[in-house]
Amino acid sequence: MSKNFDTNIAKTLDQTTIRNVESVVPKKRQELLKWYGWGYEDSKFHIDDYSLFFSGSRYPIGNDVELPNFRDWMGQKFELSVLEKPKLPTTFPEPILNETFYNTIKDMKMDYSVDGEDRFIRCHGQTLHDIYNIRANKFKRIPDLILWPKCHDDVVKIVKLADENNVMLIPFGGGTSVSGSITCPQDEERSIVVIDTSQMNRLLWLDKENLVACFESGIIGQDLERTLKDEGLTMGHEPDSIEFSTLGGWIATRASGMKKNVYGNIEDIVIRVKMVTCKGVLERNISAPRVSCGPDFNQLILGSEGTLGIVTEVIVKVRPLPAVKKYGSLVFPNFEMGVSCLREIAKRRCQPASIRLMDNEQFHFGQSLKADNGLFSKFIDSLKMFLLSKVKGYDLMKISVATLLFEGDKEEVEKQEKLIYEIADRYSGLKAGETNGQKGYVLTYVIAYIRDLGLNHGIISESFETSVPWDKCLSLCINVKACIESECKKRGIIYYLVCYRVTQTYDAGACVYFYFGFRWDSDCSDPVGQYEEIENKARDEILASGGSISHHHGIGKIRAKWYKQSVSPIGVNLYKSAKLELDPKNIFGLNNLLTEEDQINFETLNSKL
Amino acid sequence: MATSNSKKYLENYHNYLDKRVTLFTKPFDPLIPIKRNRRVLPEELKFRVLKSQHFNNYLDKISDNKNDRQQKETEAMQILTEIGFDRKILVIRSLGTVIDKLMAQLYKNVFINEQSIERLKAIMGRQQIIYLPSHRSYVDFMLMSYVCFSYNLEIPAIAAGMDFHSMFGLGELLRKTGAFFMRRTFGDEFYWNIFKEYMHEIITYNDFGVEFFIEGTRSRTCKALWPKTGLLSMALEPFFMGEIYDIKVVPTSISYEKVLEEQLFVYELLGIPKPKESTKGFFKAVKNLIDKNYGNMYFDFCEPISLNDFLGNKVDRFRHASEPAHIQKLNNDELVLITDFAHHVIREQQKKIVISTYNLIALIYNQYVFLNSTESLTINVLQNEIELYLKFFEVLGAIVAIDDTNLIKSIHEAMQIHDNILEIVGEKSIRLKKANTLATRQNNGLKLKGHWLCKEMMDIAVPVFSLQLYCNPTMFWLSQPAIFVFSLIGRQNVKIEWLKKSVMHLRNIFIYELVLYPRFADEDFEKTYALLEKLQIICKIDDETVSLTHSPYINILLSAISPFFNSYLQTTQIIFNNFKEKKFASKEIFIAVQSILEHEMLKGNFSIHPYALCLETITTTLLSLCNIGCLFKEKQDSVNQYSVHAENMSSLVDELKQYNSNLTFVYKYFNTLISSKI
Ligand SMILES: Cc1cc2nc3c(=O)[nH]c(=O)nc-3n(C[C@H](O)[C@H](O)[C@H](O)COP(=O)(O)OP(=O)(O)OC[C@H]3O[C@@H](n4cnc5c(N)ncnc54)[C@H](O)[C@@H]3O)c2cc1C
Asked: What pLDDT is attached to residue A95?
């Protein structure tokens, strides 16, 4: 092994510190997870006759309790119709295999699969485009070979071998990407090999004194938290995809978690990271809390979206589990007041672990998702009574609701609560109870399942996000909604929904999430194309309104169009130089970040060499 | 010969006077342009200006200390009080009731395009709206509010000049119906910073919509004016800065069969200053005007233009988005786009200006004068000519409101409404009435803009100008074809390449007078060329050459443009002959042109069109001459001083003479010219 591939982390590791983690998600993913949509196979919305249910017992709205309000809401908004359930294909494209590579892998006794189904379910992420194509079986190119390395060294071997034989590699974590970053390139002629990191998910060591832990990159969120919880610890990174996304994926996409106010975003959590590239292993050999050491190459790894190498081992900060976890909620007379209040809270830097603000439309949408089973019942009714009886000037069709999550020890949380409610009071924010807050957060995980329900019924929906300075936050929301409405009108779309919420707050601005869905006409041949046109217009409007290309979903392929204007042409060149330095043969050929015309022409480049 | 398109279009109009309701008590729950979280009180806008980052940064910059800053803030509050509009529904109802009565008094019909109102209603609630009406009369001011109030549309905030404000009582009344006031001073940075921010709040925060006149002032000539882009760019800036997604702009066309101010305009164009608008004067004027019949008026909201659709692909709003809006300015490219847009709006307005019988009569009368054959112009001949003109305007695309089932009746009605200009004599032949302008001598004490024209001249000029005011509204349709024909007249087999050069040159000369926006020139050329070919006014000889035909439309076009051409020729010659060696201010030119031409005309020189006395035309001539390098302009003690570029000017004069030699017109409106002055 050449010197560049030597590394420092865990070099002479005491093998006894290593803890194997049994993952919730099995190696054969399709046994637990849906192949044609989001999440667990047993958890989904379904309609029998005229009633709507959510199945499975994983989420509080499940257990097949009827959801009458949601059905009514869907009916009102979209006028449902039913399409056929998709069928898993039985035949798959023949794998293109690089003989030397394939044979050597077999010789090495590496875990591998050329099974059609295994390859098929790993050709995509979770964008609408992906899901629609997978349901319609439209992918003409899927990975040719799946590999499950078990440790860093396995990865090193694979990467070297791939580089020698010009085989393309796709680092694959949880496959939850929503930027097209993981989607199998359709015009790749080389053998495409997926490196599934799921079997590389151990806790290598834990340092309780310094509160740091070293994990392998393939560990998925819920496994990681469960493992730490046993030690009374938490990492506190909770993206909404935490059930399925991986540590390596978070780093590669610059992910953001709900509780970043307490624990930070992924870039704040990561201390050291090891990435295997075609030229060797890149890592920063310092464990100190902060260094001044020239440009920080961790920042090159963060957001590299699988194009520069594979992250294998990561040292992260961990925290003691909080003693108290408490929810809360606030009702504002309108969204504008809510934004002003969030702004003030951010200004005072007293944000609780999470604070989110929904617009009126989303509030109603959320309310419709209540079953008659306790937790989710009666909020709207009691709220109605409350508002009508106690307070004037709150119109149910205008109010905006904020959900809060506090974490810390008892006094701390109490102090925080008091302060927040005091500030809210000045912006006409009324306390609306704990359960409503809790409900909001649970809903977060359920919302992802709705897209599949929609797709079954001719409704296309997707979310997208941005970050924006405070002064432009409100106008951005209004502009983007107006833009989408106008674009729908132009296309004769009658049934649609646009709603938004603020999901993160910072010193200088906020993160805003949009949900957009519409019912497509039976004579529309390309609803996804139509959706994408509109989302593109919406993204243009986001940028024109002062928003960013993405707060945490990343660029991938679907936002590459706006990359150059976001980082300047010199920025693009700088990225390209890094790419050429680390991967001159484009082994990691996902082609993210750059538009087609900006792509490096590796063929002419390599023929010159 | 029915003007089918016009007719169809006019079917959407309904006479509002037929369905009046009591405005004092009618319910008013208007549709608003943009739904926001809550309705905003007009007073809030002023406070938002004072609180805005932009204004506060500016205050910091210009204040010496805390005290000074406080003082300036107070000053700003005073200015905002002067600017800010208000909204008192009782005042709207009262004023509405008065206007309603007035309308019924003055007009036979108040036609409103109700389809256009429905179209407008359909876009209400989704975005801010800017109404941009044409401006031919003070009546325009009241009209928009009146129509909005009657049809349950939110009454927009209306930008008004300070001259209105100073009409004591009336200014405050108008303010309460939504007028906000703008000074006409330039360069007062403090004031404009406040005003601009106020406009910003109107667009981004208020939900009323806003109205202003893109031409900046009433067009005294009844032609379109070169648009002003100052207010417009203030209003559109939030779109460029990414603060709003879209604005719908609604050009609005208000046409009058006869404008209230007709005679005032004529005097103003001749240089007799208008009386200052005092409240007393205003009411007296109203009383004098009230007993007359002003025929029909037409009100039409043009198709709303989405700024996002119109400019979306041409602007890069992202460029501004990454910094705060309040620290940025529009760049030059964007200002050019706004000018493009302004011209587009003017054209949309013009397309929907309704042409009436009298406009055609005026054109026809002029044509007969120029061909020296007024004698033959009887009612019957007039009728035939009108039919020809109708056909022509139909193809051009104009909306002409003439009852062609009974043309004779239409002619008589039109003649009656305008009986101060043309009269029918003897065997039904038609004649221009000479004025008796004795009364003007009483204007003695007032400051003159130009030369003191003598009574003999005024007696001729007043009716000729009055008549011209009715030709002018048709120039939107006629000027471009006329320039083509003008280029071709007296020439055989003209190379298209040369034709284009000539057309472009003439466009440059008449750029301001006829509002010929250079950035539309190429497209205009193609369109006009196709139109003239279709009308068989020109015919192609081969791929590269064209000739004029013998179309009867040729004389229509030539006589329509010749008053302007003649005026330009006269002014240019006079400048060339008299001002080659010295610097001069525009007033000197006014005096020279008016006095020399007066002398000549009273001597019986019929090669001069009396419209050449028009000060506004002389002004646009000066502007054009600067534009094409025949004059230099420089500011001295805040007055523009001009000097002649002899070589350029000399060749221009030769050129114009050359063009003129192809015209065989005489401008003999009256037979006998006995002058006491000579
Ligand atoms: C319902 C839902 C909710 C979501 N909520 C959030 C949220 O709250 N916050 C948020 O930030 N994101 C969210 N996402 C987006 C997505 O979960 C994140 O982008 C996540 O970080 C992807 O992780 P993954 O393990 O699934 O990576 P994958 O989807 O497998 O891969 C994503 C990219 O990272 C690369 N990659 C993966 N692993 C490695 C590795 N070990 N080394 C190098 N490159 C690698 C891949 O090549 C690919 O380019 C959500 C997505 C969904 C579907």
From this structure: 96
Q: Say what the pTM is.
A: 0.91
Over residues B135-144, the mean pLDDT reads 89
Report which residue type is found at B94.
S
Residue-level pLDDT at A50 = 64
φ/ψ (deg, to 5) at B134? -65, 160
Residue nearest to atom 11 of ligand 1 (CA): A255
Contact residues, chain A, for B245 at CB < 8 Å: 478-480, 482-483, 486, 541, 545
Q: A30-200, what's its fold?
A: 3.30.43
How do A145-148 and A192-196 pair as beta strands?
Answer: parallel
Arithmetic mean of pLDDT, B543-551: 94
**Going by DSSP bridges, is the β-strand pair A111-113/A145-148 parallel, antiparallel, or unpaired?**
antiparallel
Architecture field, domain B474-554: Orthogonal Bundle (1.10)
The whole-number pLDDT of residue B280 equals 65
pLDDT digit string (tens) for A503-550?
999 999 999 999 999 988 777 888 999 999 999 999 999 999 999 999
**How is domain A560-608 classified at the architecture level of CATH?**
Orthogonal Bundle (1.10)
What burial class does residue A288 get, using C-beta atoms within 10 Å of its C-beta: 0-12 exposed, 13-18 middle, 19+ buried? exposed
- The CATH architecture one would assign to domain B563-661 is Up-down Bundle (1.20)
Asked if B244's CB is within 8 angstroms of A541's CB, the reply is no
Tell me whether residue A422 is annotated as binding.
no
One-letter amino acid at B237 equals E
Which residue has its alpha carbon closest to ligand 1 atom 46? A306
* pLDDT greater at residue A594 or residue B24: A594
- Complex ipTM value: 0.86
Q: Which of B318, B319, B320, B326 to mutate to test the interface with A (most CBs of A within 10 A)?
A: B318
Q: Do B317 and A544 touch (CB under 8 A)?
A: yes
**B322 CA: distance to closest CA in chain A (Å):** 5
CATH 3.40.1130 at B47-351, yes or no: yes
Tokens representing residue B435 in the block: 């004025």
- What pLDDT score was predicted for residue A374? 46
Domain with CATH 3.30.465.10 in chain A: 201-320
pLDDT 10s digits, B323-333: 888 888 999 99
Strand B128-133 and strand B109-113: the pairing is: unpaired
Identify the CATH number of the domain defined by range A327-440.
Answer: 3.30.70.3450
| % of chain B surpassing 70 pLDDT | 94
Q: Looking at residue A608, what is its pLDDT?
A: 66
d(CA A446, CA A454): 13
Q: Compare CB distances from A545 to B126, B127, B321 and report the shortest one's residue.
A: B321
Rounded to whole angstroms, the Cα distance separating B239 from A302 reads: 35
Res A514: pLDDT: 97
A280: three-class secondary structure by DSSP: strand
Structurally, at CATH architecture level, domain A458-552 sits in: 2-Layer Sandwich (3.30)
Residue B111 has φ and ψ, to the nearest 5°, of: -85, 130
Confidence of residue B255 (pLDDT cuts 50, 70, 90): very high
Question: Is the pLDDT confidence value at B3 over 60?
Answer: no
* Stretch B469-488: mean pLDDT: 97
B183: pLDDT strictly greater than 80: yes
Q: A299 touching B, CB under 8 A?
A: no
Expressed in angstroms and rounded, the spacing between residue A96 Cα and the centre of ligand 1 is: 27
How far is residue B16's CA from residue A576's CA, in Å, rounded to a whole number?
Answer: 68
Residues of CATH 1.10.10 domain(s) within chain B? 474-554
Q: DSSP states of A95-106 as a string?
A: P---HHHHHHHH
pLDDT at res. B671: 76
For residue B245, the one-letter residue type is Y
Residues of chain A with CATH 3.30.70.3450: 327-440
Q: Which amino acid is at A516?
A: F
* pLDDT of amino acid A170: 98
CA angle (B400, B404, B406) in 5-degree steps: 140
